Automatic annotation (TrEMBL):
It comes from Thalassovita autumnalis. SUPFAM superfamilies: Periplasmic binding protein-like II, Winged helix' DNA-binding domain. It holds the Pfam family HTH_1. InterPro entries: LTTR, LysR_HTH_N, LysR_subst-bd, WH-like_DNA-bd_sf, WH_DNA-bd_sf. Belongs to the LysR transcriptional regulatory family. The keyword Transcription regulation applies. The keyword DNA-binding applies. GO terms for molecular function: DNA binding; DNA-binding transcription factor activity. This is Ben and cat operon transcriptional regulator. Keywords: DNA-binding, Transcription, Transcription regulation. Residues 2-60 form the HTH lysR-type domain.
Length: 284
């Protein structure tokens, strides 16, 4: 393999035809330039330079022929270095999901994906699950991670997740006590699962608090004022699980699905979809 330093010494010497000037251009001594050229000649088995008296020199026929190759090799090396060191174009992935999944499944997936893909920017749009598919179809988002509604068959994946009663760390509930609950104000959430399960065992529940936003619901739960229902993979600290000890029944499960625009067209999009799938398959 040809030494780039030897090639550079030969090219600068060929351009100046003077050892002293060549050494000055490279901020070194004449003997170093001469030694590099001699090393190159030995490697090629050809004399490239005729050394005259003093600093005079001239290229041999072999030297003139080799000069063009040496220049091309060095230019390609410079181009390759510039290409690798140039700032990479940032690619954008627009993910639509709900607040609950963004704070849990998506956050955990980002921990694994982002460090390995520094040139991919993730934008997260939080909205209701029933609003995400229209945004996907309109091209406003690239991925939609949502509670499955069974409306389309072209899902990247759908994973079953168990619904869990959750509350704050200091919440207490006696087995015979009416269950204080908090849900979204508009009722489009998991409350139907909660009341159906309570009805099966003849236990009363009441909506003690509500909020138009999931973060408001979470605030009431963290404050130990009420319980709510979440998919098991969406439970993050400081929330804790409730169950048999509080006399609460099983809730059943729900599907969490991922939809993707242009499957197979963008490697970074396929990669993030795979990371989300792996996170969903992990044991909660």
């Amino acid at each position: 393999m040809l030494d780039p330093r030897a090639l550079d010494s030969f090219v600068v010497a060929a351009e100046t035809l003077n050892f002293s000037e060549a050494a000055a251009r490279r901020n070194t001594v004449q003997s170093a330039i001469s030694a590099q050229i001699r090393k190159l000649e030995e490697q090629l088995g050809q004399r490239l330079i005729d050394r005259g008296r003093g600093q005079a020199m001239s290229l041999t026929a072999e030297g003139r022929a080799f000069l063009a190759y040496a220049q091309r090799i060095l230019n390609l090396s410079d181009e390759a270095m510039a290409m690798m060191q140039a700032p990479k174009e940032q690619r954008v992935i627009r993910l639509g999901t709900n607040v609950t999944l963004a704070m849990s499944v998506v956050a955990r997936a980002l921990k694994g994906f982002a460090p390995e893909n520094p040139n991919v920017k993730i934008e997260i749009l939080c909205d209701r699950s029933d609003a995400l598919l229209p945004k996907l179809e309109a091209g406003e988002i690239d991925l939609a991670l949502m509670m499955d509604q069974g409306k389309r068959a072209d899902r990247v994946f759908v994973e079953h997740d168990q619904l869990i009663w959750v509350a704050g760390p200091g919440f207490t509930l006696q087995p015979d006590q009416e269950v204080p609950l908090v849900f979204l104000s508009d009722g489009r959430d998991l409350r139907a699962y909660a009341f159906a399960a309570l009805d099966r065992i003849g236990r009363r529940g009441t909506i003690a608090h509500s909020s138009p936003h999931p973060m408001g619901v979470r605030s009431f739960v963290v404050a130990d004022l009420a319980a709510t229902v979440l998919p098991s993979r969406a439970i993050v600290a400081p929330l804790r699980r409730l169950g048999n000890e509080e006399g609460l029944p099983e809730l059943g499960g729900i599907g969490i699905a991922l939809y993707q625009r242009m499957q197979g067209a963008r490697p970074e999009l396929d990669g993030f979809a795979q990371t989300l799938h792996e996170e969903m398959q992990a044991v909660p």
